Amino acid sequence: MSSYPSTSTPRVTPTSFLGRMPERDRGRLLALGCTASGVVGTVLLRQGERPAQLAVLLTATAEASYVSPDGHLVRLSSYGAGDVVGLPEACTGRRALSTVRVASAGQVLDLSPSVLRSLIVTMPSVTEAVVRSLATRVHEVENQWVDTAVTDTRTLLCRWILRFADATGVPSPRGSVVTIRCSQSELASWAGLSRETVVKHLHVLRAEGLVMTGRMHLTVPDVERLRAEADGAR
């Protein structure tokens, strides 16, 4: 591990935890942590434990999953560059409800929860970033509940693909490639649908030019067109 260079700042989305801070304040926060290389599958947060460190994703992405007592795996959420893993636990002192693993390799910054709590008191931009990040997560969870309760399965699948494209999509000549692991079975798990339902809808979405599928990834040729499709039932 090493300290993050104060002269170097990662590229993050404006709506992420790091992206909400002015560059100067972001640099101060990064200088207080240590970087490590996160390989695919690295556990950043473990279900049932209180985290000793927060994980700030610099260039890596991650996904959270919950394992029920009977062994059923449920995928809960994804994290992109600039997001922080373990924020609710650091603020409340409670045990983690899910396990978060690195989904695509990259740099991760380890940050002490006590350091973050100190910054919350002394740096208004950090306070705002924490509040907005937590509020965004709450809204996402509520939105998922609403989608699952009242949305048809095709629209629900489109909205999940769009979430991945917005959160972790990497621009390419062919569109926005979802860079987290995304097989058809895993997409079904995320959306809470059967694999057969996902396969059926993907077949139609491919025919309509809304998505292209490849090994362990999806490509969205026209994000705004998919967004219009996902918003159709709102």
UniProtKB/TrEMBL annotation:
Keywords: DNA-binding, Transcription, Transcription regulation. One of its GO terms (cellular component) is cytosol. InterPro entries: cNMP-bd_dom, cNMP-bd_dom_sf, Env_Response_Regulators, HTH_CRP, RmlC-like_jellyroll, WH_DNA-bd_sf. Residues 1-16 have a biased composition (Low complexity). Residues 151-224 form the HTH crp-type domain. Residues 41-137 form the Cyclic nucleotide-binding domain. One of its GO terms (molecular function) is DNA binding. Pfam families: cNMP_binding, HTH_Crp_2. Residues 1-20 are annotated as: Disordered. This is Crp/Fnr family transcriptional regulator.
